[in-house]
Amino acid sequence: MSRTPVLTLLAASLVCAGAHAATPGNDPAALTKIRDTAMRSDWAYQRLADMTDLIGPRLSGSAGEAAAVNQVADAMRKLGAKVTLQPVKVPHWVRGTETAELVDYKGRPAGVTQKVVLTALGGSGATPEAGLSAPLIVVRSLEELQARAAEVKGRIVLFDVPFDQSMADRGLAGQAYGQVVKFRGGGTKMAADLGAAAVLVSSAGGANFRLPHTGSSGLQDGARIPAAAVAVEDALLMARLAARGPLSMKLTLTPKTLPDADSFNVIADFPGTDKADEIVIVSGHLDSWDLGTGANDDGAGVVSAMAVVETLKKLDFTPRRTIRVIAWANEENGTRGARTYAEANRTLAPKHFAAIETDNGSGRPFGMRHSAPYEAGKSFAPLQATLETMGAAALQRSDVLGTGDLSGLEQLGVPCFSPLIDSSDYFNYHHTAADTLDKVNPDNLKRHVALLSGYTWYLANMDAPLGRWNAPVKQ
To answer: How far apart are CA 7 and CA 12, in angstroms?
Structure first.
């Protein structure tokens, strides 16, 4: 596999661009063949099984992540894609011991302590090896924490704000997540700045089977206090006990932040023909958290993107524009892969026709969201008609798509796309030990491949310019 610079990749791939005649781009017959071929293939599911069962967790800097780089690169080379590994320096954070117990509270019988189920947040600092014991205070908003600033120093702070599953059930899972994840980020930093001994958050997710959800904290070098997510049931217990009177915890977390490690974005090009110098990206992120095997986040996404090439190769379809599959490094705790790519391709951004990322789990897809100009939405009617039979014809526009790995490209003017997915149960497994292959419905994964293949092909063959993304005008 090549490790040549990304900026030379496109020119090198143009040499073989004329190997096949391009199929007439966006006629209904071609779109139907793409959809039906994707729906008959289990290639993506087999690649996901390889990733999750043979490798497992893929946290940045780990042996699992390095193995996944090689696995994805090898799979794309076997499809005939031009593979380049773009070097990325990634954080290397390692989880250690994580235990906690409530050691004092009003009404506690002599000799009784209560275990608290938790998991360290990414970037967490460490307690002493023997742990730390401190009083615990419970808050329910950033404003309450600020108002109680005088109480914080030397104490453990718990943000008791549960995930709203009823919102997720109504199709608003992303919004429900947004309401609580701010405490894992900004809340942990605020507690550290106010002198907290440690900070806990109620897990940012549903299910409530006493299953903690990890994720990145907002902690930075110089202020890495111990930080953990607690199971929702344990957060509720601590809130009830705190309402009775003073409460104390013994907490032991021993993670380590090691020097940055070497990793790679895996970039695989399927060269185009008459418009081969223009690029359509289809992507997912390669890394995962270390508790589960990252089947939903984002194994399903990255194998679906990979399967676009497998679908088109099976049909012997060659696009007009170059299709670029990217398996991003380090989305979970830094987005350094995406930032590295955007910076390296800053001057080539006008040649990036569009970019797709899927990172919302493996639930049933029902359409696509995009940030292209308003008038561009009318161009997709033939594709929407083809996708209608699988219930995936919806098309929504957002001023800012804001997906983690595409934000940098979007800010450079690249129109971005992200699947609309039924995420009602996604956050039950998100960032937990339960994010495993058995949670992925093989038929839904085929639908993901069909959706991505259809949109990638359609974008790669459009006659008219799609237009550029523009920052929304502030009112």
So the answer is: 10
**Does 357 qualify as catalytic in the annotation?**
no
Give phi and psi for 329, each to the nearest 5: -85, 145
Cα–Cα distances in angstroms (integers) from residue 243 to residues 105, 179, 298, in the given order: 10, 24, 39
Catalytic residue from among 65, 278, 310, 331: 331
Residue 420 vs residues 23, 148, 170, 356, 447: alpha-carbon distances, Å: 28, 41, 14, 12, 12
What pLDDT score does 222 carry?
80
| Residue 22, helix vs strand vs coil | coil
- Cα(62)–Cα(431) distance, integer angstroms: 17
Q: What is the pLDDT of residues 289-308, one digit of tens each?
A: 999 999 999 999 999 999 99
What structural domains and CATH numbers belong to the chain?
A: 6-91+260-461 (3.40.630.10), 96-254 (3.50.30.30)
CA distance 134 to 263: 39
Note the Cα 40 to chain centre separation in Å.
Answer: 27
pLDDT value for 67: 99
Predicted pLDDT at 472:
76
Is 285 in contact with 331 (CB distance < 8 Å)? yes
Hey, which residues does 134 pair with through a beta bridge? Answer: 249
Evaluate if residue 1 carries a pLDDT over 50. no
pLDDT (average), residues 384-410: 95
How far apart (Å, rounded) are the C-alpha atoms in residues 472 and 251?
46
Element (H, E) at 202: strand 198-202
- For residues 472 and 436, give the distance between their C-alpha atoms in angstroms, rounded to a whole number: 38
Strand 321-328 relative to strand 247-253: parallel, antiparallel, unpaired? unpaired
Residue 412: both structure tokens together: 């450079």
Return the pLDDT at 24: 56
* Dist CA 149 CA 158 (whole Å): 13
Count CB atoms within 10 A of the CB of residue 238.
Answer: 26
* pLDDT value at residue 242: 99
How many other C-beta atoms can be found within 10 angstroms of the C-beta atom of residue 264? 24
Three-state DSSP at 153 gives coil
Please report the pLDDT score of residue 19 as a whole number. 38
Count the residues in the chain: 475
